[in-house]
Amino acid sequence: MFVAVYWWRVHPGKEDQFRAAWRRGTDLIREKYGSYGSRLHRDADGRFVGYAEWPDEETWRAAFDRKMVYDDPETRAAFVDAIAEVPADADPIFTMTVTDDLLLRARPDDSPLDGE
Q1: How far is the C-alpha of 111 from the C-alpha of 60, rounded, in Å?
Q2: Of 24, 38, 55, 108, which one has the greatest count of Cβ atoms within 10 A?
Q3: What InterPro entries does the record tag this protein with (predicted)?
Q4: Could you name the CATH architecture of 2-97?
């Protein structure tokens, strides 16, 4: 498995727009390019950090070289409109090969318990 990590700063008030576009874009990238999907995190300084899993570096590289373009201009426009800042070269901050994976995968029907 291969991982790419990205970050974005979002315009204040556009966090929900960004998250909705990120979720839809992640679904489209998974469908078109074969990713395993992604997780979105929020850093203490407000940055959003995305952690995307791929079957291997070659699959990620083919998608990255095509700029992960997908056929949904409205989603792409909402994503770009929400972004205030990205790294200067817009490349991932990390690309890594997974050597040991001990994450437990939650089933879709699992939900957090109240109070936890």
Answers
A1: 30
A2: 38
A3: ABM_dom, Dimeric_a/b-barrel
A4: 2-Layer Sandwich (3.30)
